[in-house]
Amino acid sequence: MAEKQYSMEKLIILFLVLISHFDAYSALAGETPKRIISLAPSITETLFALGLGDNIVGVTNFCDFPEEAKKKPKIGGMSNPSLDAVVSLKPDIVVVTTDGNPREFEERLRSMKIRTFVFGSRRLKELPGGIRDLGVAMGVRERADKLAKEMETTLNSFNNSLRVTRDASLRKKVLFIIWPEPLIVAGPGTLIDDVIRLLDNENIASRAKATYPKYSIEEIIHQAPDVIIIGKGHADMKEASSSLLERLKSVPAVKNKNVCYVSDSLYRLGPRVAQGIEEFAGCLR
Amino acid sequence: MSKIRITVLIIIALLIILCSLFLGPRVINPFGLSEVEKEIVFSIRLPRVVVAVLMGMALGAAGAVLQGVLRNPLADPYILGISSGASLTAALGLLSGFYSFGRFTLPLTAFIGASLVSLLVGAFGWKRGGLWPERLLLAGVGLSFLFHAILMLLMSVSTNEGLRRALLWIFGDLSMADWSLIPYGLVFIAAGLFIALLRAKALNALILGDEFTHSLGFSANRERLLLFVSMALMTAASVSLGGTIGFIGLLMPHIMRFVAGADSRALIPASALGGGAFLCLADLIGKSIFTPMEVPSGIVTAIIGSPYFLYLLRRRDVLSI
Q1: A-chain residues within 8 Å CB-CB of B35?
Q2: For position B169, what pLDDT does the model report?
């Protein structure tokens, strides 16, 4: 008997899950939501790029691009958004990401009958598809399609131009430094790693087991990267990285002055990725 | 402590140091150094080994001193809030954009914080012309909670990503060790160790009680103050060299009590030697095991040290401070 009750419960839960999904999809087909909350800087940027800036009513403390995003009400951090703040902004839909938001938070929102859209893209090649899905959910299918096409054109242009002209000897060994002290670099499975590959070069940290590993300095000296790219941080990165570069002075990248400082466009899987790829390509030329 | 045991300990320490220079993410043949390898050994590995040994010595000796002064086997240099105070000032420095001393900024702010907290703990522990062990301990625990909470508050409201990353350093990181900081660390640690060794006999007396101390002709208040200063110097210097490394200050004195006995005159140098060798070994393992990634040494010290300590504990019948 107890077992039967148990399986009954399971059925009910399944039913509820299905219902909630249909609910989510019915939102997808409808018109543009008036009140959108974004739980990630990359999503905020994408929503602005889709022309939905005026509909955004809440963003995270980290959303600082474009400039207008800074003026939106804040709902907390990415890993610790405030449920209170989100609910009190009475959103029509909350856009969450699988890359940084806690899963429980999204479940909690759904259990409170707040519509959510889960942005699941994490890698470069998934981005155009992700933008299209987001566009459908936000009722701006055409604009999203246009943005995604632009993205695909950029990606393909690099793919094609490289396939024709490159031979393996031109491939450079690259290291991307996120933070110099302690030394954190971009490892495998990151957007940065994807872009280094897209440009047909080799990320020397791709052997590491973590996405953003704390990296060994002597290993860098051994691996002798040809180019070092340093991302934007909170401090003046030229100053912050000077003593690290001093210690790496025998590495080809430093010896031949192939150290390049770039913006934060590749820290977020959003519309500025194309610009970030161009920047990288400039560094690697 | 028998001469044989001292000799064995010194030989083990030297072997570990040698291994740290030539083993690691890649094995280097000491008899055929290429240019690159020469650079790695002399400007990357050697300063790192020196920093590990200095920090380990400071923490081991400071632990032995503090457990005696506080008459408490659970005391370690961090229990007094020195590490959380150092982390807090370093974080505040970073947040206010204070970067005037370049790469010395973080060690310097950490050192200032550690010294200020030591003074503060001393002030709270001071009553009727002397330091009181129970007051020191409780004041330290109280301050430690306070600083830790403020630090967590900063971490949870700050959007400054650099702050989070720099705090990785405070949680124990030897990877940035280079020659520039070593002389400063060496001066403070040597001074602290010198005082501790000089007052080791008085520490023995203090452990047995204030009355006993007086009967031997020492002033308990004066000795406690001197030993406290020695502990604070060593701890502050160690935190500013490479952040907070757990386990050694708490458990190395206990391990050495099993090896060298409870007499502070042997225990302090043995804890220093053991601490230095052990941190060096832990750092070697930490940087080699998941190469090319590095595991912070503080994690390794606890993972390999604690089981050994528990094993020793099972084997012993009598425990003492």
Answers
A1: 250
A2: 65
Q: What long-range pairs does A70-79 form, CB within 8 A, spacing at least 24? A: A72/A44, A75/A37, A75/A39, A77/B156, A77/B159, A78/A39, A78/A40, A78/A41
Q: Facing residues of A96 across strands? A: A118
The encoded tokens of residue B178 equal 């280079």
Are A217 and B162 in contact (CB < 8 Å)?
Answer: no
Nearest Cα to A81, choosing from A40, A22, A50, A113?
A40
CB of B271 closer than 8 Å to CB of B64: yes
The span from the CA of A132 to the CA of A146, in Å, is 9
Alpha carbon dihedral B247, B253, B259, B261, in 10-degree steps, equals -160
Topology classification of domain A166-284: Rossmann fold (3.40.50)
Rank A25-34, A46-55, A229-238, B284-293 by mean pLDDT and report only the highest: A46-55
CATH architecture of residue range(s) A31-147: 3-Layer(aba) Sandwich (3.40)
| Interface-testing mutation among B165, B171, B181, B244, with chain A (most A C-beta atoms within 10 A) | B165
Cβ-Cβ contacts under 8 Å for A1 (sequence gap 6 or more): none
The C-alpha atoms of residue B194 and residue B200 are separated, in whole angstroms, by 10
Query: B75 to chain A nearest CA, in Å?
Result: 29
- Report which of residues A243 and A227 the model is more confident about: A227
* Architecture of the CATH domain B3-78+173-315: Orthogonal Bundle (1.10)
